[in-house]
Amino acid sequence: MKYVIIIEPTGTGFSAYSPDLDGCVATGTSHSEVQRKMAEAISVHVELLRESGQEIPQPKSSAAVVEVAA
Question: What is the pLDDT of residues 5-18, one digit of tens each?
């Protein structure tokens, strides 16, 4: 499955979350690190949901970048 993740800068690096997976977050010192850690976090999150018999949320969010005059 492919889940959208949102990556945001912080005072010490970056944080990320997926709008489709409540509570699934990661942090890192670089954009690539937080993306890698988020992939691991999603894998663990989905596996824990599966093991506990909970429904695994289907990916439904999407993201887009729009350009506006500033």
Answer: 999 999 999 999 99
